[in-house]
Amino acid sequence: MRIFVTGASGWIGSAVVAELLAGDHEVLGLARSDASAEAVAAAGAEVRRGDIGDLELLRAAAAESDGVVHLAFRHDIAFAGDFETAVAADRAAIETLGEALAGTDRPLAIASGVAGLKPGTLATERDTAEPFPGPGGRILNERTALALADRGVRSISVRFAPTVHGDGDNGFIAMVVAADQQAGSAAYIGDGLNRWPSVHRSDAARLVRLGIEGAPAGSVLHAVGEEGVAIRDVAEAIGRGLDLPVTSITAEQGEAQFGFLARFLALDMPVSSAITRKLLSWEPSGPGLVADLKQGHYFSAAAA
Ligand SMILES: NC(=O)c1ccc[n+]([C@@H]2O[C@H](COP(=O)([O-])OP(=O)(O)OC[C@H]3O[C@@H](n4cnc5c(N)ncnc54)[C@H](OP(=O)(O)O)[C@@H]3O)[C@@H](O)[C@H]2O)c1
User: Fold this and answer.
1) Ligand 1 pocket test: which of 12, 47, 114, 221 has the largest number of ligand atoms within 8 Å of its C-beta?
2) Which residues line ligand 1 at a C-beta cut-off of 6 Å?
3) Residues 6+ apart with CB under 8 A from 213
């Protein structure tokens, strides 16, 4: 298949591009800058220059493809505090890609998350969350995407664990490592027994390929390798890696140390991927989060 990938230069997207190409697919990758275009071309994909705000470009690229993986997200503005604009841009992109594929039964896989699904209880693919302020607006975007199944689109929501970890990660765990280093302590909020699901980047990328190849219309996939890793265990691994004391802090201190991330770090959100594994015979095989932290690459990046 020829697959249009938005976010092709990103952390997950670059692994998805490699996975699709290794699976004998062709990739048309969206790139908004020279550097991203070079990276996408070097990976072996065809480059389409443009921004996700250019809806005509998205429509045309989707129409000339056999399927779409939509991973671009305006993290630059979202992480600076303007989640609403980033979420709205994501929704416009999903609607446009969906219109372009309507009536074709071609796959459209979009990125989603697991926050808010079923706090404190093991959530499954059948659970849905209610929108909440900020990033929680993406829950409506998932609904928009899944509803495209009724319009002849093989729509798929890939709910990524909040940490898609691995060597080169610049996401949440890398942010926590940097914040801990700056504060001089590897901190967790409260008793730190709250859990985060995790997935290794290689497993996440393989799941996206399997979804594009075979997930039925309206599928929710959980890119989750480990159901729940206690945040205290993560802090202890970071403390060892950076040679810092490991400390419990209050939610207020958490805001000071981790900024917007503090709210997420306090969540208990164990998540199952049993339905996904069975549906697509997906078996995660990459290292777990703590084992990955023990490999040391998060700390050499922090020291650089
Ligand atoms: N990483 C995780 O742990 C995680 C967890 C849950 C959900 N997700 C979601 O999964 C998706 C992929 O995440 P990621 O970690 O791979 O993110 P990332 O590394 O920040 O990559 C984001 C991608 O989007 C592109 N992009 C950003 N703004 C754009 C714009 N205005 N026009 C065109 N392209 C634009 C970036 O291009 P440049 O290379 O040019 O910047 C990059 O290719 C996102 O939707 C993210 O929210 C990720």
Assistant:
1) 12
2) 7, 9-13, 30, 32-33, 36, 51-53, 71-75, 111, 113, 160, 162-164, 171-172
3) 1, 23
Which tokens in the block code for residue 118? 């079923």
Helix, strand, or coil (residue 50) = coil
Measured CA to CA in angstroms, residue 46 lies from 94, 111, 173, 209 at distances of 21, 21, 31, 18
pLDDT at residue number 303: 59
Neighbour-count burial for 287-299, b at 16+ CB within 10 Å, e otherwise: bbbbebbeeebbb
Residue 196 three-state SS: strand
227 backbone dihedrals φ, ψ, rounded to 5°: -65, -40
Q: Provide the CB-side half-sphere exposure for 86 (13 A, CA).
A: 18
Least confident of 114-118, 176-180, 239-243: 114-118
Q: How far is CA 175 from CA 166, 178, 181, 218, 298, in A?
A: 14, 5, 10, 33, 10
The pLDDT confidence band at residue 302, using thresholds 50, 70 and 90, is low
Biggest CA pair distance of the chain: 57
* C-alpha distance from residue 64 to each of 59, 172, 180, 242 (Å): 9, 35, 46, 48
Structure tokens at 257: 């140390």
Instruction: Find the radius of gyration of the CA atoms of the chain.
Output: 19
The closest residue, in CA terms, to atom 33 on ligand 1 is: 51
